[in-house]
Specification:
Layout (H helix, E strand, L loop, with lengths): L13 E4 L7 H7 L6 E5 H5 L2 H10 L6 E6 L5 H13 L5 E5 L1 H16 L20 E5 L11 E6 L4 E6 L8 E4 L9 H20 L5 H23 L4 H16 L8 H12 L4 H16 L4 H10 L9 H18 L15 H10 L12 H26 L1
Parallel strand pairs: 1-8, 2-3, 2-4, 4-5, 5-8
Antiparallel strand pairs: 6-7
Helix pairs in contact: 1-3, 4-5, 6-7, 6-8, 6-10, 7-8, 9-10, 9-13, 10-12, 10-14, 11-12, 13-14
């Protein structure tokens, strides 16, 4: 259907990608004029030895970073504001983020506060506008999921309100360079590989079906789906498989580009708000919710869901559009099982929280991008299905053992 709704797309991020691309980090920092960047990372990256690899590359180009390694999962307002204070106090001239989405989002948030003052909470989407571009920033992902290295968003946790909020929607928050080295992901535990890979799939699925989709985002979202369908199970099963790691890193980047300046849909409205209630891994939580959301949504965009079935490698010849759409939903349910995504109870949630979680999801701005009208009652049904799904899988497994 042709529409008169304005669509725009802009990405200011330069892509630098290959196996071993981390060796280019110092060169890229020098090209951006960095001499004393704030290097934003977490303890896990440091323990894996990846921080030392990055420091060697930077120092080899006469770049001496200030290390800020206090990032935690689901980074909060206080952490971002502390990082911005450190940036100013140390006289830094750029940012290097090494890690998963939490490190990259923290660095983006630090950049926003560093050039605007105040607190990152002031720049929640819909509040104070971001008027200036963040300082030169290189994002180096060590997971294959969030796509934050190329998105125009950062997700920050506000523990006082028990919510996550979005900052951005503008090219001014984007990293200047995304340095993508799939070899940095080979040490990921299987559970992290699964959760982050399913998060990439959720980005692709939601951006392909959201009301703001457009030709460019459609194209990259579909290719991301193809890569996840082909390679996630392999990366989950064979940590050292570089072909799988390469394509999953590409899938995460492509799915991140699919966002553009817009939002996603119900799965992310649910996972982001629920992640502010309990400190659950974002990827695993989004993965657990994706199948139930797709089951609810496929009636709203059956043709697009049918097209996704083809991207998943399913044979849709001779079946109706409705049946092909159902096949896409069934595929994601099965993939969720195959990569051992934990259930809602395992992620720290209880069923008596469903009404509260549904209210929070409905209030999230990403609700408006969903391809099917959704209200609090619908969110309650979707959450209930997410709780039931793991139980059904366990019951089926126990029955098979008998």
């Amino acid at each position: 259907m042709l529409e008169y709704t304005l669509r725009t797309y802009q990405s200011p991020t330069r892509l630098v990608q290959r196996l071993g691309a981390i060796k280019e980090l110092g060169t890229e920092a020098g090209l951006l004029g960095m001499r004393r960047p704030l290097l934003v990372t977490d303890a896990g990256v440091k323990a894996a030895g990846l921080l030392d690899t990055a420091l060697e590359a930077l120092r080899g180009s006469d770049v001496e970073p200030v290390v800020f390694d206090r990032v935690k999962a689901n980074p909060g307002v206080e952490l971002v504001d502390a990082g911005a204070a450190e940036y100013r106090a140390q006289g830094c001239d750029g940012l290097v983020a090494i890690g998963g989405g939490s490190s990259m989002d923290t660095a983006k948030g630090i950049g926003v506060v560093a050039v605007h003052d105040g607190s990152i909470v002031d720049y929640e989407w819909g509040h104070s506008p971001i008027r200036s571009r963040i300082p030169p920033m290189i994002a180096v992902p060590t997971t294959a999921g969030t796509g934050s290295e190329v998105t125009l968003w950062a997700v920050i946790t506000d523990p006082k309100r028990k919510i996550k909020f979005n900052v951005g929607g503008t090219p001014d928050i984007a990293s200047w360079v995304a340095l993508i080295d799939p070899e940095l992901t080979v040490k990921l535990p299987a559970g992290v590989t699964a959760g982050t890979g399913m998060d990439a799939l959720a980005h692709a699925v939601e951006c392909f079906t959201m009301v703001y989709h457009q030709p460019f985002t459609d194209a990259v979202a579909l290719l991301a789906m193809e890569y996840v369908a082909r390679y996630l199970r392999v990366a989950f099963s064979q940590a050292q498989n570089l072909e799988a790691r390469y394509h999953m890193s590409a899938a995460a980047m492509l799915a991140g580009l699919a966002y553009g300046t817009d939002s996603a849909g119900a799965a992310h409205a649910m996972s982001q708000t629920a992640g502010g209630v309990h400190d659950a891994p974002h990827g695993a939580l989004t993965a657990r919710l994706l199948g139930p959301v797709m089951e609810y949504n496929h009636a709203g965009e059956p043709e697009r869901f049918a097209r996704m079935a083809v991207a998943f490698g399913l044979d849709t010849r001779g079946v109706s559009t409705w049946r092909a759409a159902e096949m896409a939903v069934e595929y994601v349910h099965q993939l969720t099982k195959d990569v051992d995504i934990p259930g809602m109870l395992e992620l720290g949630f209880s069923e008596d929280e469903i009404p509260m979680l549904a209210d929070k999801a409905f209030a999230d701005p990403q609700t408006i991008g969903n391809p099917r009208d959704v209200d609090t009652a619908a969110y309650r049904r979707i959450y209930q299905q997410a709780f039931d799904a793991k139980r059904k899988t366990a019951a089926h497994a126990n029955g098979a053992k008998k």
